[in-house]
Amino acid sequence: MTSQPDPRRSGPACASQPLSFARSEPAIGLHVRTSRDGVEAALVRRFLEHALDTFARPSEAIALFCEPRLEIGYPDIVITVFDPRHYDHWSTARAFLEVQDLKILQHLHTVGSTDTEQLSLQLGLPIQDADFRLAKLHDARLVRCIRRRWAPYSLRRSYGIKRLIAIEAKINNWRAAFHQATMNRWFASETYILSPVAKPSRRVLERAKAFGVGIYTCSQNGVVRANPSVQSALPACYASWLFNEWIGRSLNSGLV
């Protein structure tokens, strides 16, 4: 993908003025791919100009990530709809959490609770490392220890994202588009292909439904959702937490 508008973030995030993450910000742990101009970049810009304000609802806000670096690569666009009030009581200790810490946190949300020894075996971590990372999560007020068993606090308390929408822009390579969009289901609640084709073929639409992938078209007819995405629960994996942490760190670091 490519070149995105890079407005400096100012004022509260809202549907018309989202938080925009178009460049790397090492201070919050975010790295993005260097943008390149091209037809896909122009397609994305047209889409965002017409469609961005449709994603947020009253009391919600938007964060826009341009090609963030993830384990699976660089999704073109990730639109994150979140409740800004959730981040008002942010623990400063969360600024020091790393990927491995978030993997442990997601694991605890999956299994419910476990002791340090079991966690060490389940994740293949040295017990000293497990102890160290659980202590970090405890300091960040994300987990608690009761009778030597670790359990996460509720998602309502620790996770502020409502929707995590991944969008892959492709001009004409449907096979590559479906491959990338399907991979994005790993972390996103919704995943879409963005295409300049005004009317995708019946075969394309059937394949989209089979894979649970949505399609947006952006053409002379405007922006149209040709097929909805399957909606998955959040957080889907540790990468879903990364977006939550990037937003929280940014809102509480004086960057906005």
Q: What is shown here, in short?
A:
The protein contains 8 helices and 9 strands. By secondary structure, the protein is α/β, with parallel strands linked by helices.
Helix/strand/pairing category: alpha/beta
Number of domains: 2
How would you write the strand order of the largest sheet?
1-2-3-6-7-8-9
CATH class membership of the largest domain: Alpha Beta
Average pLDDT, rounded to a whole number, is 90
Distance between the termini: 26 Å
Broad shape: elongated
> Secondary-structure element sequence?
EHEEHHHEEHEHEHEEH
Sheet with most strands = 7 strands, mixed
The number of distinct helices, counting runs of at least 4 residues, comes to 8
CATH architectural grouping of the largest domain: 3-Layer(aba) Sandwich
Helix content range: 25-40%
CATH topology category name of the largest domain: Trna Endonuclease, Chain: A, domain 1
Strand content: 15-25%
Residue ranges: pLDDT <50 for 5 or more in a row?
1-16
Number of strands: 9
